[in-house]
Design goal:
Strand content: 25-35%
Mean pLDDT: 95
Oligomer: single chain
CATH class of the largest domain: Alpha Beta
CATH superfamily of the largest domain: Glycosidases
Bound molecules: alpha-L-arabinofuranose
Number of strands: 26
Shape: globular
Helix content: 25-40%
Length: 512
């Protein structure tokens, strides 16, 4: 008994001090920029995302503008959300925009068949969404209805939003309180058209895209950036057929959806808060598939579009777990742990490193749904670990991309391995260099020796996000258990940068 206790203590001691090494080179002159739009968010009419998330009861005792909750708005302004995708998701292909304009009491009600069968009262419609975007200082990205809508309905929505003419539709916008065009340029032509958006074949969808996109007109001052509904995860044929059949000058972007499912089983995805190291390891394996997906979808796009005119838009990504016990399963409400933060940081590093093709992405979803940035409970709200990653990473937005070459040690578990470290780097307009490092190894710190080629710097500071346990979460009782701390594990050593990054942590370094 005593011997085994000693053994456990020895193992614990060895693990907490275990350390491996990595080599990193960072160089400039890639000519690429990390588009701020990689840091976009997604807000669907789903569960408590819009209703009870952004748009609350008029009697809720929080500061509001109209019914928009301002504590949520202010928290999101801090992380500089560049765009917000709306109204879906699957909801988009059943949404009829005319139901969501005009006097609120007169708006028709519908059943949200995709998400819990609840009544949608349409009190949050086009004007309310655009008022929210204005408060957030973010660009709207609207997904039009291809699945159950018509070409005429989409064309008129674009006209309603963007036309400054005296057409009946444009005048209706003025009568509803907004004489000036809204100037919405990001425009999704359907969502998941291979599934909830109409169960189409890629050939059929490509044809539909051409029809819908033709009549979604550019109005003066607002050329549309049309985004085609792209592949589900590993469906490379979808990308191939779209790239082959849609003229490049008709689409600004082609989307991709990929969710990290901890168990790999959509029927039983795994708990957001109670998981073993094996399940954590599997989750990170699944998260890292994003690298393969981006590479393979990009390679197909390169064949048809070698000049990289069409963006790969990963407009739904994140971890999808079982819903929190006791909540409506149709509402997709899940907690958010340190694991989620490592997933967010790793995925954003992947996008940054592919910024030549990935020009836009949206995390699913902003408030109270899936891998949320913010959770609310009546008047309370909390910032999740994922929020803190977006806060740390905002420095990459629109910065010059720096090329990274990393030799990472392995994180090995039960005979399988993944790279322990992932990284991306950029240089902002003032010359500051930012390096975002993630150590996904649950047990070992990693010492990284970094050479920075052609880059001048003299001092380094840093921030870190970590916690004692990979399952740690922020709760309404303890909303700041996970928060950003100062990081002191980096130093200048001659011309090199030496960093020791603790196990299961995200570090952002600033060199100037
Ligand atoms: O984000 C939740 C759902 O996931 C979206 O509505 C749909 O597009 C995807 O399948």
């Amino acid at each position: 008994m005593k011997k085994s206790l000693l053994f456990i203590l020895l193992c614990w001691h060895a693990n907490s001090f275990a350390q491996t090494t990595a080599g990193l080179t960072i160089s400039s002159n890639t000519g690429e920029t990390v588009s701020r739009h990689i840091y976009g968010q997604f807000a669907e009419h789903l569960g408590r995302g819009i209703y009870d998330g952004f748009w609350v009861d008029k009697n809720l005792p929080v500061k509001k503008q109209g019914r928009i909750r301002l504590d949520v708005v202010n928290a999101l302004r801090k992380i500089k959300v560049p765009n917000l995708r709306w109204p879906g998701g699957c909801f988009a292909d059943e949404y009829h925009w005319r139901d969501g304009i005009g006097p609120s009491m007169q708006r028709p009600k519908m059943v949200n068949t995709n998400w819990g069968g609840v009544t949608e009262d349409n009190s949050f419609g086009t004007h309310e969404f655009l008022a929210l975007c204005k408060l957030l200082d973010t660009e709207p990205y609207i997904a039009g209805n291809v699945g159950s809508g018509t070409v005429e309905e989409m064309a008129k929505w674009v006209e309603y939003l963007n036309s400054g003419s005296s057409s009946t539709v444009a005048k209706m916008r003025a009568q509803n309180g907004h004489p000036e065009p809204f100037k919405v340029s990001f425009w999704g032509v359907g969502n998941e058209s291979w599934g909830c958006g109409g169960e189409m074949t890629p050939e059929f969808y490509a044809g539909q895209f051409r029809r819908y996109a033709t009549y979604a007109r550019d109005y003066p001052g607002t050329p549309l950036k049309k985004i085609a509904s792209g592949a589900n995860s590993f469906d490379y044929n979808w990308t191939e057929v779209c790239m082959k059949n849609i003229p490049l000058n008709m689409m600004w972007g082609l989307s991709l959806h990929y969710y990290t499912i901890p168990t790999g089983n959509w029927g039983k995805k795994g708990s957001a808060t109670g998981f073993t190291e094996q399940e954590y390891f599997n989750t990170m394996v699944s998260c890292l598939k994003m690298e393969e997906l981006v590479n393979k979808h990009s390679a197909i796009m390169d064949k048809y579009d070698p000049d990289k005119k069409v963006a790969l838009v990963v407009d739904e990504w994140g971890i999808w777990t079982d819903p929190e016990p006791g909540t409506n399963p149709g509402f997709l409400y899940q907690q958010n742990s340190l694991r989620d933060a490592l997933i967010a940081a790793t995925t954003l590093n992947i996008f940054n490193n592919h910024c030549d093709r990935v020009k836009m992405a949206e995390l699913a979803q902003t408030v109270n749904v899936l891998q949320a940035l913010i959770l609310t409970d009546k008047a309370k709200m909390l910032l999740t670990p994922t929020y803190h990653v977006f806060d740390m990473y905002k420095v990459h937005q629109d910065a010059k991309y720096l090329a990274v070459n990393l030799k990472s040690p392995d994180y090995d578990f039960n005979g399988k391995t993944i790279p322990a470290i992932n990284v991306s780097a950029s240089q902002d307009a003032t010359g500051k260099i930012h390096i975002s490092l993630v150590n996904v190894d649950m047990n070992k710190a990693v010492s990284i020796s970094t050479q920075l080629k052609d880059l001048k710097w003299s001092a380094v500071t840093g921030e870190i996000l970590t916690s004692a346990n990979i399952t740690d979460v922020n709760t309404f009782q303890q909303p700041s258990k996970l928060h950003i701390n100062n990081f002191t594990g980096a130093k200048k050593d001659g011309d090199d940068l030496k960093v020791t990054i603790p196990a299961k942590s995200v570090v952002m370094l600033e060199l100037k």
